[in-house]
Amino acid sequence: MAFYECVFIARQDVSGTQVEALIETLAGVITEQGGQVTKREYWGLKNLAYRIRKNRKGHYALLNIDAPAAAVQEMERTMRINEDVLRYLTVRVEALEEGPSIAMQGRNRSDERGPRRGFGDRGFGDRDRGFGDRPERAETPAPVPGVSE
Fold it and tell me: Are 60 and 101 in contact (CB under 8 A)?
């Protein structure tokens, strides 16, 4: 059997539980055909780069699959029929990744970066702009050349 990664986007109108049910349905199609789904990840509701069927957002999900080609074709046929699936992409890979995917690691990485820098933490607003070494201005204005009083 071959290894596949499948990412699909569901409509923004469906709920997260409906997307989980859709993932279970697609996993059931794979297991009926003699394959297995090794990893299921729900990435959440994200903005789309462009509108797809009048949707600006979509629910993203990933499936790692170990199955024959016929099972993947049946899963893709099921996704084409389902109105809730906007787009899908299935890619054959040499080996399946262990652990969370890059998209899931990105969620956890925000905690590791530390606090965000703001105006009070010597961020953008507090930097020295070089005005401290200017001489003080004179109280009387400088004479303008060519104008006599």
Answer: no
- Model-wide pTM > 0.90: no
Q: How far apart are CA 10 and CA 85, in angstroms?
A: 4
d(CA 3, CA 62): 13
Integer Cα distance of 45 and 16 in angstroms: 8
Q: Which two tokens stand for residue 86?
A: 């906007």
H or E segment to which residue 45 belongs: strand 36-52
| Average pLDDT, integer, range 101-123 | 61
Q: Two tokens at 107?
A: 């969620």
pLDDT in tens, 63-104: 999 999 999 999 999 999 999 999 999 999 998 878 777 777
Quote the CA–CA distance of 122 and 103 in Å, as a whole number.
31
